[in-house]
Amino acid sequence: MFVELDAPAPVAVRAVPPPSRSARLRRAGRSLVPYLYLAPGLVLLGIWVYRPLVQTGQLSFFSWNLLPTTPMVPVGFENYERLFTLPEFGTSIWRTVVLVLGLLPFTVVVPVAVGLLARRVRGRAAVIYQALVFAPLLIAPVAGAAVWQWLLDPRSGAINQVLGTTTNWLQEPGPAQLAIIVITGWHVLGFAVLVVAAGLAGISDDYAGAAALDGATPGQVTRWITLPLLSPTLVFLVLMTVLLSAQWSFPLIDTLTNGGPAGATTNVYYLLWDYGFHSFDAGLGAAAGVIFFAGFGVIAAALVALSDRVTFHDN
Amino acid sequence: MAVIAGRAAALERAAPADEPVGTHSRTRAVVGHLALGTLGVLCAFPIYWLYATSLRAPQDIYSLAPLPWPLSAQSYVDAFRVLDVGGLLLNTTVMAVLIALGQLLTGLLAAYAFAAWEFRGKSLLYLAFVATWLVPFQVTMLPNYVLLSQLGVLNTIAGVVLPSLCTALGVILLRQHVQAFPTELLEAARLDGRGSWSTLWTVVVPNLRPALAALGILLFVNAWNEYFWPALVLQRSNAVLQLGLRSFMGTEGNDWGPMMATAGMACLPVLVLYLVLQRQIVNGFVRSGLK
């Protein structure tokens, strides 16, 4: 490790640098150094994120079936027009909204309720609880899907046997959407619980103590002190849920329901996958991708702007 | 790390002495234990059921008995017969290690540049890294798929690794660490006549070893559990565990025992890592967000 490797530019300090051409070159070389360190990452992201992003934009104006042998035909805005006439486009957005709303209890409500109830639980017990709650996040999504398929099996699954029902959870529209929400929620709950716990631990006890001295009840302290101080954490969790729900649930949908039954679990990202790799309609998929990307961008910007107004910071 | 560490310290500092002692606080403690405990059991139950089912004898698969007894390894034997589990494990490990190392290296180099130099376009370039976090895979997948097929790496591990060699996550997290690094040390190394490259490897990296290890584990777990790219690139070969497991699913009349055994093996390396390094993994995930 102590071998001197060829540095991109010499950094030896001279007492009086001669104002020669080589020195100027060297200085120019030295200012290049940080860019050289950035280059590998930038090149990779350029190739695998920015180039395809631009190409998706271009592709949305063409008709193409993904085969190298067939030519791409320019069609103007036809893909976009087609997209807005397809009923599944609107329903996939609606289903994504349902998914996000269905996940908020798992990513915000339950973690905050449990976090508040369990503020005083510390030590070894807390570590064990944390380990249990967090474990599902580390389960590979496909393995999670496998065990839930087994638990939800209509004839011999544990859930139907315990409940005494015969629901075919993954083959009926309503239950299938519910199942996808619950399984996705199970995966991410532990993360939210720990984020809330970290947020609560960062709130100084002094405020609650002062309020209690003034005669505030524990409920009032929670409502008027703890929750406002926790608001940045809550906004972060809501933002994550809105932006990433459709991505979190993707592996589960792809392995458990394939977007079905009758499209009942097809959210926006699954629709993209469907257009691209099931109907091989690259142009339509690209157009949908552009719309969803722009839509999520606007929502994210709006949420961030909103959060600056509603959050309360402890300075 | 600083944020969480600070909060963890706050957790330990808050002395129980300033709490009202009595039945009220005891009730609250019991309620807290009950709430967290119930949640913990609910969360862990499916994982327990996975391993319990995989260890039942074939004729007991449908049993609801909480303990799998008598134990049987038959499901694992069957899984090994149907799938080349050894090969899948090897492929998945190679893939996850390469991705984690790649992301660690590109992230380290970029973070070093951002932390150690002032240069033109710095904040814009940092934004260029961070913004990629917002681009969903599904939006870029078509052009990337076409490029991979032009490169001739579809259905190979290389096809999965290449697009994943750099992420915003690695850069963001490592930047925090390198920035927290004392500038005096960097300055001293420079006065010693060390080049920036040798400073990076002989001064920065040895001191950041714990942070690099924690981030490396996080990236490894992420890569191990990755589903989207392998599903897209390895459509015909099913060469990693996640996809091998998927080949068990979806058909009527699933073979639950071997399926649970395969799922169990797909999760085991990560769960073992978790048991050994719980705190680092949890901190890593909480700090990094989820993607």
UniProtKB/TrEMBL annotation, chain B:
It is found in: Cell membrane. The chain crosses the membrane at residues 30-51, 94-117, 124-147, 153-174, 200-224, 256-277. It is a multi-pass membrane protein. SUPFAM superfamilies: MetI-like. Keywords: Cell membrane, Membrane, Transmembrane, Transmembrane helix, Transport. The keyword Ribonucleoprotein does not apply. The keyword Membrane applies. Its main location: membrane. Residues 89-277 form the ABC transmembrane type-1 domain. Belongs to the binding-protein-dependent transport system permease family. This is Carbohydrate ABC transporter permease.
